[in-house]
Amino acid sequence: MQDTTSAASTSGVSKQRTPQPTYKHGNEEQGKDRFPLGTRASQLALIQAHHVAEILDSLHPGAGYSFPVAPMSVAGDRNKKDPLYLLTNQQAGTGQSEVLQQEATAKTQIAKSLWTEELEEALMERKLDVIVHCLKDMPTQLPENCEIGAILTREDPHDALVVKKGLGYERLSDLPEGSVVGTSSVRRIAQVRKMYPGLKVMDIRGNLDTRLRKLDDPNGPFSAIILAAAGMNRMGWQDRITCTMKSPEILYAVGQGALALEIRAGDARVKQALRRVGDWKAEWGTGAERGLLRELEGGCSVPVGVEAFIEEVSETDIEDLVRPFDKDPEEVKDDAPLLHQSGRGKLAKLHMTACVTSLDGKKQVVHDAGWVLVKGFLEAEEWGHRVAKDLMGKGGKEILDEINLVRQQREQGLA
User: Fold this and answer.
1) Least confident residue range of 164-173, 315-324, 344-353, 406-415
2) The CATH number of 159-245 is which of 3.40.50.10540, 3.40.50.1100, 3.40.190.10, 1.10.3720.10?
3) Potential cystine with 357: which of 82, 182, 303, 400 (Cβ 3.0-4.6 Å)?
4) Active site includes 137?
5) Is 187 a catalytic residue?
6) What residue segments make up the domains of the chain, in order of their start?
7) Burial annotation 140-154 (CB, 10 A radius, 16+ → b, else e)
8) Domain with residues 26-156+254-411, CATH architecture
9) What pLDDT sits at residue 408?
């Protein structure tokens, strides 16, 4: 049901593309208006940034624009040893006193900034005009002077199971009891423990090629690992995917599979260059997911899973749809943030399912919010907030409180 069309033809990335070793600078760009694209320095990040540059080039033929790629090493990539939940030191900011909520929220945002802060500093210093992010790595609250300028057509947002070479298993359920499954995501760890308590889950860090090498090591402990399908597809390694994992087995991470372009807030020059690159369905869908996550104050180390579908509808198709808002949205002005302008005049039906799972997998709350009619990005985002409140009311709050308490005790040396 995931839509894969876009006026800008942004669906997917060339499957065998490899990052170019050199970038356009200096004399090669004389007379051109440069828009440097910042990115992390991994092979996957470079592939994604070059994909964005190609799309932007195609949208502005003969305009005299250039989009050089500028990679940077960031803190989150420099530590590939520690488990993410120790590296990020995140907490869920739900169900505590106001002070503790604020502290937990701050830690969540600081944690995710391990992948974004240094790039954002270069953006604000105007060394960059755009940052290409995996949306799932971005905090739900950006620095005051930054905004998301566009979200491209989404790749497959689901998780992928990759089985060690030579083993004939086709699904996670095929693995014998005691088999070791590798992942760096607490969300995946919690959901695997819920569905398959007989399996052992072990942390695995590193770039995709490093994780695959660890998996296939004959002397290594892993029978399988779980990765984002989008990353494998973009690397051209989809032949290594054993199967794609979908609900009810596992719900994916907020924003997974989507590329976001971060810019300086209110930068009219850059906004104009990005005006046609976004996919409004991807923007509304991920907007709803990020609205949910912002309400839960979760992050990489909080086991929140989601699944969202969005489909365009016409006035003749909306009679039987639930309309959760009392009035239509106000008209969005041309100088508003680009995401607020996304899909102006469109109608869509949106379906969201979300879950919170305890770290040991013994407790899980799943909320299916059903189909609703939304009339803009801001409505989709607000619906995500409301779904999160319903999820907490069904028992998700208690799970997040327990997770927060355990982490506070760990930090204080009590656990």
Assistant:
1) 406-415
2) 3.40.190.10
3) 303
4) yes
5) yes
6) 26-156+254-411, 159-245
7) bebbeebbbbbbbbb
8) 3-Layer(aba) Sandwich (3.40)
9) 78
Say whether 410 is catalytic: no
| Residue 401: active-site member | no
Are 67 and 50 contacting, i.e. CB atoms less than 8 angstroms apart?
no
208-235 pLDDT per residue, tens: 999 999 999 999 999 999 999 999 999 9
To the query of whether residue 126 is one of the catalytic residues in this protein, the response is no
Residue tagged active-site, from 188, 194, 294, 375 = 188
Q: Which of 193, 194, 211, 290 is catalytic?
A: 211
For the sheet containing 37-40, what is the strand order?
A: 69-72, 37-40, 130-134, 259-264, 146-151
Residue carrying the six token digits 């779980």: 226
Catalytic residue of the set 17, 200, 205, 276: 205
User: Which position among 134, 146, 300, 355 bears the catalytic label?
Assistant: 300
Determine whether 355 is an active site residue.
no
The tokens for 55 are: 């799309």
Q: Which helix (H) or strand (E) holds 77?
A: helix 75-78
Exactly one of 3, 129, 137, 159 is catalytic; name it: 137
What's the N-to-C CA distance of the chain in angstroms?
44
Residue 205 catalytic? yes
Out of 40, 107, 112, 187, which one is annotated catalytic? 187
Whether 26-156+254-411 and 159-245 share one fold: the answer is yes
pTM confidence score: 0.84
